[in-house]
Protein backbone atom coordinates (compact mmCIF):
# COMPACT_ATOMS: atom_id res chain seq x y z
CA UNK A 1 0.00 0.00 0.00
CA UNK A 2 1.23 3.51 -0.87
CA UNK A 3 2.45 5.53 2.09
CA UNK A 4 2.93 9.26 1.82
CA UNK A 5 6.13 11.02 2.91
CA UNK A 6 5.49 14.44 1.46
CA UNK A 7 2.46 16.54 0.56
CA UNK A 8 4.15 17.83 -2.60
CA UNK A 9 4.31 15.47 -5.60
CA UNK A 10 3.80 12.36 -3.46
CA UNK A 11 3.82 10.09 -6.49
CA UNK A 12 7.29 11.26 -7.56
CA UNK A 13 6.25 12.50 -11.01
CA UNK A 14 8.87 13.85 -13.43
CA UNK A 15 9.85 17.39 -12.38
CA UNK A 16 11.85 17.94 -15.56
CA UNK A 17 9.15 16.91 -18.05
CA UNK A 18 9.65 18.55 -21.45
CA UNK A 19 6.72 17.12 -23.36
CA UNK A 20 5.49 20.65 -24.15
CA UNK A 21 8.55 22.42 -25.58
CA UNK A 22 6.98 25.90 -25.52
CA UNK A 23 6.05 25.56 -21.86
CA UNK A 24 9.32 23.93 -20.84
CA UNK A 25 11.16 26.88 -22.40
CA UNK A 26 9.43 29.54 -20.30
CA UNK A 27 8.21 27.92 -17.09
CA UNK A 28 9.95 28.51 -13.78
CA UNK A 29 9.17 24.97 -12.67
CA UNK A 30 6.73 22.09 -13.02
CA UNK A 31 4.03 22.31 -10.33
CA UNK A 32 2.78 18.79 -9.72
CA UNK A 33 -0.04 17.91 -7.34
CA UNK A 34 -0.05 18.51 -3.59
CA UNK A 35 -2.04 17.17 -0.69
CA UNK A 36 -3.46 14.00 0.78
CA UNK A 37 -2.71 11.15 -1.64
CA UNK A 38 -5.63 9.21 -0.12
CA UNK A 39 -8.03 12.16 -0.23
CA UNK A 40 -11.67 11.79 -1.14
CA UNK A 41 -11.70 15.26 -2.73
CA UNK A 42 -9.64 16.18 -5.81
CA UNK A 43 -9.42 19.84 -6.87
CA UNK A 44 -8.34 20.46 -10.47
CA UNK A 45 -7.50 23.83 -12.01
CA UNK A 46 -6.39 24.71 -15.52
CA UNK A 47 -2.75 25.69 -14.87
CA UNK A 48 -0.59 27.14 -12.09
CA UNK A 49 -1.02 30.85 -11.39
CA UNK A 50 2.10 33.00 -11.20
CA UNK A 51 1.92 32.78 -7.39
CA UNK A 52 1.60 29.00 -7.38
CA UNK A 53 4.49 28.67 -9.80
CA UNK A 54 6.70 30.94 -7.67
CA UNK A 55 5.73 29.08 -4.49
CA UNK A 56 5.78 25.62 -6.06
CA UNK A 57 2.49 24.56 -4.46
CA UNK A 58 -0.83 24.53 -6.37
CA UNK A 59 -3.41 27.14 -5.41
CA UNK A 60 -1.11 29.15 -3.14
CA UNK A 61 1.00 32.30 -3.43
CA UNK A 62 -1.63 34.86 -4.42
CA UNK A 63 -5.15 36.13 -3.80
CA UNK A 64 -6.72 33.43 -6.00
CA UNK A 65 -4.96 30.75 -3.99
CA UNK A 66 -6.08 32.31 -0.73
CA UNK A 67 -9.69 32.21 -1.89
CA UNK A 68 -9.49 28.48 -2.59
CA UNK A 69 -7.58 27.78 0.64
CA UNK A 70 -10.22 29.64 2.62
CA UNK A 71 -12.90 27.37 1.14
CA UNK A 72 -10.83 24.30 2.04
CA UNK A 73 -10.47 25.58 5.60
CA UNK A 74 -14.22 26.20 5.88
CA UNK A 75 -14.87 22.65 4.67
CA UNK A 76 -12.49 21.17 7.25
CA UNK A 77 -10.02 20.05 4.57
CA UNK A 78 -7.20 22.37 5.67
CA UNK A 79 -5.82 23.12 9.10
CA UNK A 80 -3.78 26.10 7.87
CA UNK A 81 -4.40 29.80 7.41
CA UNK A 82 -5.43 30.66 3.81
CA UNK A 83 -2.07 32.32 3.12
CA UNK A 84 0.09 29.45 4.35
CA UNK A 85 2.61 28.64 1.58
CA UNK A 86 2.54 24.94 2.51
CA UNK A 87 -0.95 24.26 3.81
CA UNK A 88 -1.58 21.25 5.98
CA UNK A 89 -4.29 19.52 3.98
CA UNK A 90 -6.27 16.45 4.84
CA UNK A 91 -8.65 14.45 2.66
CA UNK A 92 -8.02 16.75 -0.32
CA UNK A 93 -5.51 16.83 -3.17
CA UNK A 94 -4.81 19.81 -5.47
CA UNK A 95 -3.62 19.60 -9.05
CA UNK A 96 -3.96 20.99 -12.59
CA UNK A 97 -4.79 19.99 -16.15
CA UNK A 98 -1.33 21.30 -17.09
CA UNK A 99 1.37 21.76 -14.53
CA UNK A 100 3.56 24.22 -16.40
CA UNK A 101 2.72 27.87 -16.85
CA UNK A 102 3.08 30.08 -19.88
CA UNK A 103 3.12 33.67 -18.59
CA UNK A 104 1.15 35.02 -21.54
CA UNK A 105 -1.44 32.46 -22.52
CA UNK A 106 -3.48 29.50 -21.32
CA UNK A 107 -2.39 26.01 -22.36
CA UNK A 108 -3.28 24.79 -25.84
CA UNK A 109 -5.46 21.70 -26.28
CA UNK A 110 -2.32 19.76 -27.29
CA UNK A 111 -0.58 20.79 -24.06
CA UNK A 112 -3.57 19.68 -22.02
CA UNK A 113 -3.47 16.35 -23.87
CA UNK A 114 0.30 16.04 -23.27
CA UNK A 115 -0.20 16.51 -19.55
CA UNK A 116 -3.18 14.23 -19.24
CA UNK A 117 -1.17 11.12 -18.27
CA UNK A 118 0.00 12.94 -15.12
CA UNK A 119 -3.56 13.91 -14.20
CA UNK A 120 -4.82 10.45 -15.04
CA UNK A 121 -2.11 8.86 -12.93
CA UNK A 122 -2.94 11.05 -9.95
CA UNK A 123 -6.67 10.43 -10.34
CA UNK A 124 -6.22 6.66 -10.53
CA UNK A 125 -3.89 6.54 -7.53
CA UNK A 126 -5.99 8.86 -5.38
CA UNK A 127 -9.32 7.34 -6.51
CA UNK A 128 -11.34 10.31 -5.17
CA UNK A 129 -15.07 10.40 -4.58
CA UNK A 130 -15.56 14.10 -5.34
CA UNK A 131 -13.86 16.18 -8.01
CA UNK A 132 -13.89 19.98 -7.95
CA UNK A 133 -13.16 21.44 -11.40
CA UNK A 134 -12.10 25.06 -10.91
CA UNK A 135 -13.13 27.23 -13.86
CA UNK A 136 -14.67 26.53 -17.25
CA UNK A 137 -11.69 24.81 -18.89
CA UNK A 138 -11.29 22.24 -16.11
CA UNK A 139 -15.04 21.64 -16.02
CA UNK A 140 -15.21 20.92 -19.75
CA UNK A 141 -12.14 18.67 -19.65
CA UNK A 142 -13.59 16.62 -16.81
CA UNK A 143 -17.01 16.51 -18.38
CA UNK A 144 -15.48 14.67 -21.34
CA UNK A 145 -13.87 12.13 -19.02
CA UNK A 146 -16.52 11.59 -16.42
CA UNK A 147 -20.02 12.49 -17.67
CA UNK A 148 -22.22 11.67 -20.61
CA UNK A 149 -23.16 15.31 -21.22
CA UNK A 150 -21.65 17.34 -24.05
CA UNK A 151 -18.78 19.45 -22.65
CA UNK A 152 -20.22 22.64 -24.15
CA UNK A 153 -23.44 22.09 -22.20
CA UNK A 154 -21.53 22.92 -19.01
CA UNK A 155 -21.25 26.44 -17.68
CA UNK A 156 -19.07 26.95 -14.61
CA UNK A 157 -21.01 30.09 -13.71
CA UNK A 158 -24.38 28.35 -13.83
CA UNK A 159 -23.21 25.06 -12.27
CA UNK A 160 -21.13 26.64 -9.50
CA UNK A 161 -22.06 25.15 -6.12
CA UNK A 162 -24.12 22.30 -7.58
CA UNK A 163 -23.49 18.56 -7.87
CA UNK A 164 -23.09 16.89 -11.25
CA UNK A 165 -23.25 13.12 -11.12
CA UNK A 166 -20.56 11.48 -13.20
CA UNK A 167 -19.21 8.04 -13.94
CA UNK A 168 -17.60 6.97 -10.67
CA UNK A 169 -17.30 10.53 -9.34
CA UNK A 170 -19.45 13.44 -8.40
CA UNK A 171 -18.32 16.75 -9.87
CA UNK A 172 -18.66 19.89 -7.77
CA UNK A 173 -18.00 22.74 -10.22
CA UNK A 174 -16.50 26.00 -9.00
CA UNK A 175 -16.19 29.29 -10.89
CA UNK A 176 -12.76 30.55 -11.86
CA UNK A 177 -11.00 31.87 -8.76
CA UNK A 178 -10.93 35.39 -10.22
CA UNK A 179 -14.74 35.30 -9.97
CA UNK A 180 -14.95 33.60 -6.57
CA UNK A 181 -16.35 36.46 -4.51
CA UNK A 182 -16.96 35.92 -0.82
CA UNK A 183 -20.63 35.23 -1.42
CA UNK A 184 -19.89 32.72 -4.18
CA UNK A 185 -17.34 31.01 -1.90
CA UNK A 186 -19.98 30.87 0.85
CA UNK A 187 -22.48 29.36 -1.62
CA UNK A 188 -19.97 26.63 -2.50
CA UNK A 189 -19.19 25.84 1.14
CA UNK A 190 -22.88 25.76 2.01
CA UNK A 191 -23.73 23.44 -0.90
CA UNK A 192 -20.96 20.98 -0.07
CA UNK A 193 -21.66 21.03 3.66
CA UNK A 194 -25.42 20.70 3.41
CA UNK A 195 -25.89 18.57 0.31
CA UNK A 196 -22.74 16.48 -0.03
CA UNK A 197 -20.87 16.01 3.26
CA UNK A 198 -24.17 15.49 5.10
CA UNK A 199 -24.91 12.27 3.20
CA UNK A 200 -22.94 9.20 2.21
CA UNK A 201 -21.34 10.35 -1.03
CA UNK A 202 -18.95 7.40 -1.18
CA UNK A 203 -19.47 5.14 -4.14
CA UNK A 204 -18.75 1.43 -4.11
CA UNK A 205 -15.16 1.58 -5.28
CA UNK A 206 -13.59 -0.69 -2.73
CA UNK A 207 -12.29 2.23 -0.67
CA UNK A 208 -11.20 1.25 2.79
CA UNK A 209 -12.66 3.12 5.73
CA UNK A 210 -10.77 6.26 6.74
S1 LIG B 1 2.50 20.87 -19.02
FE1 LIG B 1 2.68 18.74 -18.33
S2 LIG B 1 3.24 17.54 -20.15
FE2 LIG B 1 3.63 19.71 -20.60
S3 LIG B 1 5.81 20.00 -20.08
FE3 LIG B 1 4.61 20.55 -18.26
S4 LIG B 1 4.52 18.69 -17.02
FE4 LIG B 1 5.15 18.09 -19.11
From TrEMBL:
Gene3D superfamilies: Uracil-DNA glycosylase-like domain (3.40.470.10)
Stored Pfam families: UDG
A GO BP entry: DNA repair
Domain Uracil-DNA glycosylase-like: residue ranges: 32-197
InterPro entries listed in its UniProt record: UDG_Type-4/5, Uracil-DNA_glycosylase-like, Uracil-DNA_glycosylase-like_sf
Record keywords, A-Z: 4Fe-4S, DNA damage, DNA repair, Hydrolase, Iron, Iron-sulfur, Metal-binding
GO MF annotation list: 4 iron, 4 sulfur cluster binding; deaminated base DNA N-glycosylase activity; metal ion binding
Protein name, UniProt field: Uracil-DNA glycosylase
Amino acid sequence: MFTQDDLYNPFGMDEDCRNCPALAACRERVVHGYGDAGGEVLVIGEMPSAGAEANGVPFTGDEAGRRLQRVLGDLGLSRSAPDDPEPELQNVYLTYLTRCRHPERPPTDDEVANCEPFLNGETRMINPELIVPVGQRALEALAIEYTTRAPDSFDAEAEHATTVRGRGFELLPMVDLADLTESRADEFVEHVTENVFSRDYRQTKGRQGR
